[in-house]
Amino acid sequence: MKDIRNCNTSSFHIQLLSKIIDIDQYPFIKLMIINNISENEYEDLFQLLTQLEDTFQQQKEEGLIDFTSLLVRFAGMLNEKLDPNETIFALKKEGYYPSLMDEFTKIIAAESKYRGK
């Protein structure tokens, strides 16, 4: 019974906080909440992003100019609860991994242009 009360209290506190914070300014956090991402899933995502960032920097130093394979890897390893493009744009807006997210958004824009969308 105590766990239910704690859960209800936490839920109530989150509702109160959501009234004073413009959640639309935090699209990544909003995605995490809306898609019911657990703490472990959140940590897994950041572990993936850190690995991709490291690979991205290494490949840039080696002179690679096409990073599509990293985007494909991100999309393939992303939690199934999340949409890859939506997640990338949310991460970019909140300033996470800026150079990597810039590259991913460039690739997405080029793909959309190529497909005529």
From TrEMBL:
SUPFAM superfamilies: Hypothetical protein YhaI (SSF109915)
Segment forming the signal sequence: none
Coiled-coil region: 35-62
Coiled coil as UniProt keyword: yes
Name the record gives this protein: DUF1878 family protein
InterPro entries, sorted: DUF1878, YhaI-like_sf
Gene3D superfamilies referenced in this protein's UniProt entry, alphabetically: YhaI-like
Record key words, sorted: Coiled coil
Source species: Oceanobacillus halophilus
